[in-house]
Amino acid sequence: MATTAQPVYAWEVVPAPRPAALPEPDPDPSEAEQLACRDVWRVAPSSKPAGGPLEPLTRDWYLHLDGKRYRRHGRWVPAMLEFTRHAGENLLAVGDGLGLDWVRFAEGGANVTVVDPSAERLRLYREQSEVRGASAKFVQAPFDHLPAPDDRVDVVCAVFNDPPQVPWFTALGEAYRILRPGGKIMCVLPSKYNAAKWQDLLMPWRTWFRKTPKGPPRFTRRELYEGFLGFQDVRVYKRHLRRSELPYLWRWMILPVAERLMGRFFIVKGFKPLTAAAAVRAAA
Q: pTM for the full model?
């Protein structure tokens, strides 16, 4: 009975064919439109698309959304998030929007790494960066297990339009871990005591016949100071308010003053203490 000779040398082994690369699906325009509605700060649902008549996922569409996000009531965003102050620094970005802010950081010269647990969301981020000529890295990972070694990131920026669906203070501990000593954290988080909440407190009859579903809890200033206790030089600001969110009797108020009392978002900034470097050396 004849036997087949077994290969002796590596070059005699027939290589297995490589699997054909699966084409990556294009980003979903409907999901992009939902995220766009969130990033242009809409208060109530609207039947009009956020990008107007423009074709979704095009450069003009993104620029149109930029105009809505950063003008008027959103004029505070570029200065508060320091888009142009982190050139050459490694910045890790997480959030729940369309990623308009991440492009601004990249255009300002930062080395941006975008982390998101959703592959579909990352495709949207990547598509926007390519269309707008921005450079960034995209990594799929959960927010509470950030894919970075200890003490390597210069800036962590988190922008959440809605309350995060993650163990928030666990994620905050991860941000502390990956920041280098002296590194900066910036967070935009929804405020509990916004204009709608104050209306309910001061005019309780508005809620007698209106049931609102309970979602994830929003943040108070005290909770944020407690959560950022390990950071240094922590500052908490409150911003963002449309005049249309105020009842008619309150619309006489100066808007910059009113938003500091009833704004929709907290902006938290802090630094990882330089003493953390000494602690690491002592532990080693």
A: 0.85
